[in-house]
């Protein structure tokens, strides 16, 4: 897979002579930002990626990883990346869809079902075309092999079908693909930051949230919700983004190291998170949460089509599916 993560502006490159590494002597630094805590598997994965790149380039390219949005808000960071800053950001297709609308399709309902299908996206000419369009906006995707498992519904009532969500206010991020996905699946979407979900549930501002399993103990949300419904409606793919200007300024072997090591670390981290789901599920069940492992997923899949239709993404979804042999 040849894609991209991280950013650095040519004007802000950290360059020094005499390194002797494969890049020809110059040293480069990428400051990489993400919103997750240091305890999250993604943070360890990013650190592993940084170590592998530094070793492979003999110290010529180093990545400094900043957790918990230490460098700033995601949207602001992306703007800095566009301007050529030496910053990278872990983000999602919903946000990138604000620059190239078609990319939002990746965060649509049931777009992909497993890690094998995520890897196969590298073979989609249609997706590559949209990633090239994103580069024209100054943003280069280095990897999208970073997957935070499936999203499910967490509520205080039993859910089996889309009709059971009617009238429920469900927290989701504010981007159109998220909002329309939740609406298509039967609920009323409410845009809310993750940090506000606990109090929102506690105070009745929302009736539930759609999240990955790892989010629940991380936010102590088992204290304010008692039902998990395993719809698996979105497999949460993350994109690692850097400045296109900076990436092009790197020696070719540094570019290759950055991409290949991001893909490798991403898939390893994604599998680690997938392996942890069973333990988290059991932990929540032991705490008293009711786990519905058998809702009417086919009904949810069928309902999810409306999100693509409302956003005009059905055609691009079908084209990508054809190219990766899905559907």
TrEMBL record:
<protein>
    <submittedName>
        <fullName>C4-dicarboxylate TRAP transporter substrate-binding protein</fullName>
    </submittedName>
</protein>
<dbReference type="InterPro" id="IPR018389">
    <property type="entry name" value="DctP_fam"/>
</dbReference>
<dbReference type="InterPro" id="IPR038404">
    <property type="entry name" value="TRAP_DctP_sf"/>
</dbReference>
<dbReference type="InterPro" id="IPR004682">
    <property type="entry name" value="TRAP_DctP"/>
</dbReference>
<keyword id="KW-0732">Signal</keyword>
<dbReference type="Pfam" id="PF03480">
    <property type="entry name" value="DctP"/>
</dbReference>
